[in-house]
Structures are given as structure tokens and as C-alpha cells.
């Protein structure tokens, strides 16, 4: 079963073309990684899938669970199971993490035609999820992301993912700024939550994340296109030779 199918996607920001024909297909149970130099368009792709308003899709299609999502609002995409963990999570002063999670969880339930969850049931549910990311319950009382360390923000993203149980999870540079312990916790969380019905897109500039979250397929993005795809060996090649070797490849027509 195909979860996400992106065909010839082109997109602009302020009339400048950023994506220049992206093709990507993610099937249920698959973990895909996108690697590439800074500025190659990785975050743009993830934000466009989530429906970020800064980007104008100029051509192509994004099909999620058999339906085009290009006309759908970001919240509708989120409620239908697309989850994007942001590269730089926002701080929302005054909104407790617990409140935020409950609102997000109930929005999804409402979309599914379900009633709001009882407050006590929600607390039980979230406590269960806290264990996955090894977070202290006091974390829930704090304002969303206010004063969270880099590692705490990332863990919180995984907590949100655990709670919302998305069909398509996109992790954009979830590894940036994490020390090895935090990276391990975050990756363990993702690995524990992985199921054969779901699809995953893991975006990273560095190879090391892929030691922890093992992808089935690795893609390399360059100048707004996926220029090559492969298995684990591709990540190893990138690690030992850097992104430069792809320049030779692309001039050779790959
Ligand atoms: P990556 O995530 O691979 O580092 P990005 O998708 O962030 O790359 O950026 C790709 C290109 O698009 C860069 O040249 C970047 O400057 C540009 N870009 C992305 N988002 C915006 C934006 N909101 N406004 C202007 N330029 C942008
Ligand atoms: Mg970048
Ligand atoms: Mg980026």
C-alpha cells in the first residue's frame, strides 16, 4: 500500500523555483531517508508536504493515501495523519505542553468523528507515551518549548508523534543539536513506534542519524531534485566521500 506518492513536484518561494521535479514514493512499513547538502531543498519538501503557506506548488502532485492533498489546509493534513517534526520547534509561551497535546489530540479525534477524550483518560494515555521518550511528567506542565533544551524539544516532538500516532511521519533534522544520549532516546522512540502500516521520511544532513534509525531507502537531494537513491551503501559512500562525489555522478548523467 502506498502512503505517499510525489510526482514531478515543482515549487517556488517568492517566485524563485526551489523544487524542480521531485519524485518520491513511500509505501507502508518503509523508512525513507533524504540526505543532501544545506540548501538543497529538503526542508522545503517537508514543509510543502505539511502544507506550509510560504511555498507555492507550481506543478506535479502529492498523493497521500490515494488522494491529492494539494488543496488541503495544513491542519486537515495533520488531522489526516501527516506529522512533521520541525527543524526548529516553536515556543508558545503561556500554553502548557499538556494543553497543547490535548488540543492536538482532540482535533485529530474530531476529524475522525470521535468525541473528545476524557481529561483523566488523556493523562493516562500521555503518561504511557512519556515512558517511550523517557520524559519526566513535570515536562507536561511547562509552557510549550519555552526554555526547553534542544534535546527536550526533540524528545517532545517524539512525544507528540507517539500521541498522535501519525500515518506519515516526517522528521526534519531531528538530530541537529542532539548529543549522543538524546539522539539514542529519540531514535529508540521512533524505532519503538514504527509499525508496518506507517510510512516514515527522515531528513538529515548527517549520516550518523542513520546508524540509529535504519532506512530502507536513501535518497539524495541536490538543487531541488532527488538525484540518486539507494540502500545503506549510499549513506556509507556519502560518509566516506562527502557530497562531492555526487557532483561527478550527476555530470555522468546519474
Ligand atoms: P535544506 O533543508 O536542504 O537545507 P531548504 O529547503 O531549507 O534546504 O532551502 C532550499 C532553498 O530554498 C535555499 O536556497 C533556501 O534559501 C530557500 N528557501 C527555503 N525556504 C525559503 C523561504 N521561506 N524564503 C526564502 N527562501 C527560502
Ligand atoms: Mg538547511
Ligand atoms: Mg533543512
UniProtKB/TrEMBL annotation:
Record keywords, A-Z: ATP-binding, Nucleotide-binding
SMART domains xref list: AAA
PROSITE patterns with a match to the protein in the record: ABC_TRANSPORTER_1, ABC_TRANSPORTER_2
Pfam families from the UniProt entry: ABC_tran
InterPro entries hit by this protein: AAA+_ATPase (IPR003593), ABC_transporter-like_ATP-bd (IPR003439), ABC_transporter-like_CS (IPR017871), FeS-cluster_ATPase_SufC (IPR010230), P-loop_NTPase (IPR027417)
Gene3D superfamilies, alphabetized: P-loop containing nucleotide triphosphate hydrolases
GO molecular function terms listed in the Swiss-Prot or TrEMBL record: ATP binding; ATP hydrolysis activity
Domain ABC transporter, first and last residues per copy: 4-248
Family classification: Belongs to the ABC transporter superfamily. Ycf16 family.
NCBIfam families, A to Z: sufC
Protein name listed in UniProt: Fe-S cluster assembly ATPase SufC
Naturally occurring in which organism (per UniProt): Waterburya agarophytonicola KI4
